[in-house]
Records
---
Amino acid sequence: MSVRVARSRELVAAGRRPAVVARVAGVSRQAIYRKPKRRRPPQRRPACGPVDAVIVEVATANPTDGTRMVAAKTSRRLGRPVNRKRAQRVMREQRLLQRHRPPARRRRPGFFRVERPDQLWHLDLSAVWVAEHGWCYLQAAIDCCTREIVGWSLELRCRTQEATALVEQATLARGIEPGELTLGTDNGSAFTSRAFRARLGDLGIAHRRGGYRDPESQAFIESWFGKLKERLVWRSEFETLEQGERGDRRLHPELPPPPALRPPLPDAGRSTTNLGGWTTTSENRGLKRQRPTGPGHAPPPG
């Protein structure tokens, strides 16, 4: 564009009509007539007024604070509200604004071409409310080639033991050989623990971790969990873990059986016999529970 404008100015200076030159060159006549001026660097103006002086003083004393924090500290010092935009204008004029670093690019595991079943699995977990135990955890692994759930479990904990048991049962049922499978997970504590990675190494499974704050690296299993919640979890209320497992198999009849890992609760605070006197009936599901009864509880109002 600048080359055409410069050439158009030369033709106009040689005696050509500006309207014809602008129409043929595809530029505006204003660009031909305008005389470019060198841009002057911004001048640092002195702070005018007591409020601007306090803003400059606070910003200079706290060079790492942003405009909102400077405005808040100035308001506290003066005892009157100071607009954030005023603090931003004064700090810009005094060149006190700090340059923001561009957000670092998320590190993704890279492109993975899936060419056969049992080549890449995605493993993830999600919380499901069960009235008997509270929040329980549903873990599932999906085959990225066939979109088939190869293993799942609904447990009281989401520790390394539950994740390891799920992987062991799924690989045994599918007959996975060492060096044949790559398991993709997020950066949860259960999947990044030393015991889990060591067990994957013993099984000959390559571990592929996704990027931080990047659910797209686990797109297949994240999509499956989203559909499961829309079609079953958010529409149902489960009283026991067995009801949750029956609901999953009713919605997905092709699901494999869950691993037999159901140890007793280690602490009495979450046991089924110590729920503070609360009981659940078939009429009152989910969070709709009866009043507490027994010693230590007041009788219901008559």
Note: The first helix runs from residue 2 to 13.
---
Amino acid sequence: MIQIPRSLCTTRDSLEFSERSLQEIYAPNARCFGCGPTNPHGLHIRSRVVDDLVVADWKPEPYHEAFEGYVNGGIIGVLFDCHSNWAATYSLMKRRGLSTPPGTVTAEYCVIHHSPTPSNSTLHLVSKVVELTEKKAVVETTLEVEGKVTASFKGTFVAVKEGHPAYGRWR
């Protein structure tokens, strides 16, 4: 499982939290439910690069719960999918030497829930690209709450071509 020193993590109370996220830099007008900065009903995931990892902290609200005190599994899936997609598209952008990320979509993913995820604390996501080609990135991500990994993820993301609805989505 991916581990990151807590000293590198950001929270809403830390100075680093005010830094612009990948979403705010490359897709400030995006409306995606999980990561779009402009979606008034979205989750507003804010992914940041830390060395070779992409990290994000997110605080659930009671309406994100499956039952009292625990985050809904579907919400966890959205967090993993959107955050990991940003790890993939950022890595593809860097590999290709581009100034903007290519449009990417999820080809497949798997979520493993190790234990129920409490909703009373900040959720910490850590992504690492484990395979990278010109057109594809495989990403592994963990979800941690108060030092305990409650879920893990592995997904494959592919760059799309002109004519696909996601082509140019970050512009």
Note: Residues 64 and 71 are 6 Å apart (CA to CA).
